[in-house]
Amino acid sequence: MALSAKTCTPCRGGVEPMSPEQAQAMMKEVPGWKLADSAKRITRRFDRKNFAEALDLVNKIGQLAEQEGHHPDITFGWGYVTVEIFTHKIGGLHENDFILAAKINQLAEPARS
């Protein structure tokens, strides 16, 4: 099943984060994303034409994050949005992070010029 077809499940902690090898294997499912912080986070920058388009993407990601119950760190400015995802409760990566990244890709890709 494609990651974008899955739904994030609540993580209450008590599970181990993905190993760097497991995280690397998942990267093929989320084109454009990069491993960061010793494979404890994934990050991606989305370029946009201006501030308004960047803000629009931030708002769409925010709505998606609320629906999924999984909240990334987002920074943005004129013409860019940077998203960083990890599971706070376990201090690393979980399948939920990759599900959210795949869904963000679906939101962001149609708007690319």
Describe this structure in words.
This protein has helices at residues 20-26, 51-68, 95-108, and strands spanning 34-36, 41-47, 73-77, 80-85. With 113 residues, the protein is an alpha+beta fold. It has one domain (18-111): 2-Layer Sandwich (Gyrase A, domain 2). Strands 1-2-4-3 form a 4-stranded antiparallel β-sheet. A hairpin with a 2-residue loop joins strand 3 and strand 4 (80-85). The longest helix has 18 residues, at 51-68. The mean pLDDT is 90.
Write the layout of secondary structure elements.
Elements: H1 20-26, E1 34-36, E2 41-47, H2 51-68, E3 73-77, E4 80-85, H3 95-108
Helix pairs in contact: 2-3
Question: What does this entry show, briefly?
Answer:
With 113 residues, the protein is an alpha+beta fold. The protein has helices spanning 20-26, 51-68, 95-108; strands at residues 34-36, 41-47, 73-77, 80-85.
CATH superfamily: Transcriptional coactivator/pterin dehydratase
Please compute the radius of gyration using only Cα atoms: 14 Å
Mean pLDDT: 90
Instruction: Provide the helix percentage.
Output: 25-40%
Note the gap between the termini. 29 Å
CATH architecture: 2-Layer Sandwich
How big a fraction of the residues is strand? 15-25%
Shape: globular
The structural domain count equals 1
The overall strand count is 4
CATH uppermost class:
Alpha Beta
Number of helices: 3
Mind describing the biggest β-sheet? Answer: 4 strands, antiparallel
Protein structure class: alpha+beta
Low-confidence stretches: none
Kindly list the characteristics that best describe this protein:
113 residues; alpha+beta; Gyrase A, domain 2; 4-stranded antiparallel beta sheet; 4 strands
